[in-house]
Amino acid sequence: MDLILQIIKRAGHLLVTSHADPDGDAVGSLLALGLALKKIGKQTTLYNHSAIPAVYQFLPGVDGISRRLQSPETYDAALVLDCGDISRIGESWPAVARVGVIINIDHHISNTGFGRHQLIDGEACATAEIVYRLIRALDVELDREIATALYTGILTDTGSFRFSNTNVAAFAIAREMTELGVDPYRVAQHVFGSYSLGRIKLLNLALNSIEISRNGKLSIMAITRSMLDETGTQPEDTDGIINYARRIEDVKVAALIQEQANGTAGPDGRTGVHVSLRSDGTVDVAAMAGAFGGGGHYSAAGFQIESTIADIKSRLIDWAENI
Ligand code: 5GP
Ligand code: MN
Q1: Which ligand 1 atom sits closest to the C-alpha of 239?
Q2: What atom in ligand 1 is closest to the CA of residue 83?
Q3: What is the pLDDT of residues 197-236, one digit of tens each?
Q4: Are 116 and 202 in the same domain?
Q5: What is the pTM of this model?
Q6: Same domain membership, residue 285 and residue 174
C-alpha cells in the first residue's frame, strides 16, 4: 500500500481501468477511485473497453469513462481494477500492459499476480472494499458521489449482501456510505428495480433453457445470440439470470453458457462462448474455470472458449458426474 501511495502521489497522469463487460463492482470501483484521484488534483483517465451498462448510467461521473486509450507513454501508471487476469481488460489489454507501471487491485483468489505492484485481497467482498481502503489511505475526504460508487460496487458484488463474500466490511462500508448520503432505495431501484420488457422476456427464454444433469447437481442455462436478437437485449441484460439456475433445489453448480455477441461462427459452428459458473459454496468453481483457462472466486467464476453450446454442455455434464 505504501509503495502504491507513493506512485500515485508522484505520478503526473494516471490511467484507471477495470474489466470489459463491467459489472457493478468494476464500474463502481473505477468511478470511486477516479473521483477520489480527481479530488486530490490528479490528472486521471478512466477507461473501460465496453460501454457502461444502462443500469449503472445513474452513477455520478459515468460520462467521464472513456472507451479510447492514448499511447501507453501518456500514462505514468495504470491502476487495473477487478481483473483476475490482465486480459480481462478486453482486447486493448496489450496497450495497457505497455504502461510503465501497472498496479493490480483485485479480490479474485485466482488473480495471476500481474503488474509491478499488487493490492490483492481474496477476503475482500468486492474490489470496491479495497478501493475504499486505498481512498482512505490517500486521505481523500469521501463525499456522496464517491460513496454512491463504492456502495454500488459492494451491493452488486455481494448480491445484495447475500453471497458468501458478504463480510463485516460490506456492512461497515455500506453503513458509512449511507451516513454520507447514499440513498439505498434509489440505488436499488436503478440497479435492480426497473428492467426493459425485453430483459424480462429474455429471462423467460433463459429459464426455459434450463437442463439438469443426471445426478441433479448441475443446472445449465444457455443464452444464444438469437435470443438476444429476438428480445432486443444486450449481453449486459443477462447479468444475474444465472442465480435462478443456482437456486434450484439440490443443485450445487449452475452454469450459464452464452454465445458471444460478436464474432462469427467457423465452418464447424464453433464460436466464442462465455461460461459463467456459480456454486452453493461446496464446490470450487474457480478451479473448474481455471481448468478451462478462466478464473474467478470459489463460488463464482467463468471462462471464455471457442466452442459450441452443445459441446460445452456435454463437457459440463460429464464433469458433473464427479460433483
Ligand atoms: P461472471 O460469471 O459474472 O461473468 O463472472 C463471475 C466471476 O468469474 C467474476 O468474478 C469474474 O471475474 C470471473 N470470470 C468470469 N469470466 C471470466 C474469464 O473469462 N476469465 C477469468 N479469469 N475470470 C472470469
Ligand atoms: Mn468484483
Answers
A1: 3
A2: 12
A3: 999 999 999 999 999 999 999 999 999 999 999 999 999 9
A4: no
A5: 0.91
A6: no
